[in-house]
Amino acid sequence: MRQLNVAIIGGGTVGSGVYKALRRNGSLMAARIGARLRVKHVTVRNKRKARSVRFPASIVSTDWKAAINDPKTDIVVELIGGTSTARKIVEQALKLGKPVITANKALLSEHGESLFQLAAENKTSLYYEASVAGGIPIIKALRESLVGNQFTQIYGILNGTCNYILTRMEADGEPFEDVLADAQKMGYAEAEASLDVDGFDAMHKTGLIASLAHGFWVRPDAIHVEGIREISTLDIEFAAALGYKIKLIATICPVTRNKRSKKALPQVQVSVCPTLIPQSHVLASVSGVFNAVYVNGDVVGETLFYGQGAGQDATASAVLSDIADASLDLLNHQSIRVAPFVAHTEDCEVLPWEEVVSEYYMRLSVTDQPGTMAKIADVLAKAGIGISSIVQPEGHEGKTVPLILMIHDASTASMQKALKQISRLSVVKSPPRMIRVEHFQ
Ligand code: NAP
Ligand code: HSE
């Protein structure tokens, strides 16, 4: 049986997980793919650091260049994170014609288009299953299993850390910062916490899924993103009372063309934002570090992919799947069966966020006095925005009370304008909150 040598660049949470899993299931994989896999190099930044996994001294180094250039290295796995050194690692390996596996969604979001191009020029491949939704095989599902579908709707919970934080805030009313610290201890969070909580990590993943599903490269700056920092337990409680949960939802949906629109190009809504979803929807039951991707294809119909979205073992499982694919390419004399990304649509664009039409939840903090509601309703009526329901807990005249308005479909632009006017009313006591509502129709 042929032996293939793997260089793991980065021996942190995911790198250690891959090493452990290969030790545990290496012979099983060999039997299944027809090649023995040997970890020939693990490179780290600091060789003396205490680690949960003990790598043999003979394979550990700090010299990633030597590990990649080693003529015996067949497959390179980039697991250091970040976008500068990681880019150099991936480029160097691809230029040598070696298949590369990465879990680095930030790198791919920023430089994926040119890296896929470089892989093609060097007749090799760049695999990235672990970069989206941890252990869920969503990349493979979209590029292989569902290749015969046009994707009419894709909705996802794509960040394990945010879902873990929202779940704990909802279940125990725990403060945001405490739960984030726990997510960091468990190895779910990115080195830079803002990537998770401000929605950027989910945005990177959403761009990768959208590009794959719709065949044009979706640049990160075209994606609307909002994180969960501003979500309060008060919003979670009001949402629950109204029959909703708040989740950080990625939306990738082609827009039915508006007859009034002069836009010539088909458009796709690509966004990531906290969203109220009905408690009865399947995505509402996705808790903790779990992720899920709901995919509706014109041939297959509705499908749902569910699993752990972050963490050592789940992510390692996705890396192993890519190592198997890269091994099969090599055993096949480098002929790649299905390219990991193929651009196939030139005439498509991302729908500008201001044009997105949605239902909304609005939370105001207002003075409980006669005429308050009339003033707010007047602003909304003049903007052509309809209210579908109103909730105000019983207050005391003259005191400040929360006021919740559920809003019928409205464009984001008109909502933002109305919200600005409402925030200037003397009866409104703190900045209004507005959260999208999705009924998945
Ligand atoms: P991590 O625990 O911080 O590990 C990073 C590793 O890279 C460490 O071993 C570090 O060395 C090493 N490293 C950093 N710079 C290096 C350099 N210049 N040369 C050699 N080694 C270097 O990160 P992680 O959580 O494993 O994440 C790795 C990648 O996987 C990231 O792109 C992340 O977004 C992605 N990812 C993570 C998860 C997850 O649940 N953690 C899930 C999916 C995808 P030292 O150990 O010596 O510091
Ligand atoms: N920080 C990421 C998350 C890791 O929490 O989802 C998995 O990509």
How many distinct folded domains? 3
- Write out the distinct hetero groups bound to the structure: NADP nicotinamide-adenine-dinucleotide phosphate, L-homoserine
CATH superfamily of the largest domain: Dihydrodipicolinate Reductase, domain 2
The CATH topology label of the largest domain is Dihydrodipicolinate Reductase, domain 2
Strand content: 25-35%
Describe this structure in words.
With 441 residues, the protein is α/β, with parallel strands linked by helices. It has three domains: 2-134 and 312-331, NAD(P)-binding Rossmann-like Domain (Rossmann fold); 140-309, Dihydrodipicolinate Reductase, domain 2 (2-Layer Sandwich), CATH 3.30.360.10; 357-437, 2-Layer Sandwich (Alpha-Beta Plaits). 36% of the residues lie in helices and 26% in strands. It is built from 13 helices and 17 strands. Strands 7, 8, 9, 10, 11, 12, 13, 14, 15, 16 and 17 form an eleven-stranded mixed sheet that branches. The chain is elongated and about 80 Å long. NADP nicotinamide-adenine-dinucleotide phosphate binds next to helix 1.
Briefly, what is this?
The chain has 441 residues and is an alpha/beta fold. It has helices at 13-33, 64-69, 85-95, 105-121, 138-145, 160-172, 176-185, 193-197, 200-214, 233-241, 312-331, 372-382, 412-423; strands at residues 2-9, 35-43, 60-61, 75-78, 100-102, 126-127, 151-157, 224-225, 244-254, 267-278, 290-297, 301-308, 349-350, 357-367, 387-391, 400-411, 428-437.
Keywords:
Alpha-Beta Plaits, eleven-stranded mixed β-sheet, Rossmann fold, 441 residues, single chain, six-stranded parallel β-sheet, Dihydrodipicolinate Reductase, domain 2, 17 strands, binds NADP nicotinamide-adenine-dinucleotide phosphate
